[in-house]
Sequence to fold (152 residues):
Amino acid sequence: MYKGVAQLLGMDVIETGGHDTTEDEFNTVARIWDRYDFIFCHIKYTDSRGEDGNFDAKVKVIEGVDAALPILMNLKPDVLVVTGDHSTPATYKAHSWHPVPTLLWAPGTHMTDRAQVFGERECMCGALGQFPATDLMPLALAHARRLEKFGA
Fold:
């Protein structure tokens, strides 16, 4: 589905060459980094392991994302957003209505909060709080300093 939507939007779909670990996907991002202003990297297995009801495997995938993040950070992005398109709790084995944790990082961003880890409970109390998903791209563009004006 993501590939079809990306193509509909005029985005290039970059294959990882059959390698599908998070590290492989992030290394693919690094390989094409200089060719794009915007890169969307979808890590499907966080969702799949929730749908399987396999909590331990979901934790392992999320820890793999965390361990591989330095690959992206070494690219010195203008902004980095880590989030999901929906929640998929392993206990439900399905998509749910729960809020989706969102991490937004940019150099020079001074949003301070007490969050020390990235998880549902911490994100609820973080500087971003809860917000409609339609606000995510304007927030990301603003933090990347790609907007002349934010809001009305």
Q: What stands out?
A: Strands lie at 80-82, 103-105. The chain is about 40% helix and 5% strand. The radius of gyration is 16 Å. The chain has two domains: 1-76, 78-152.
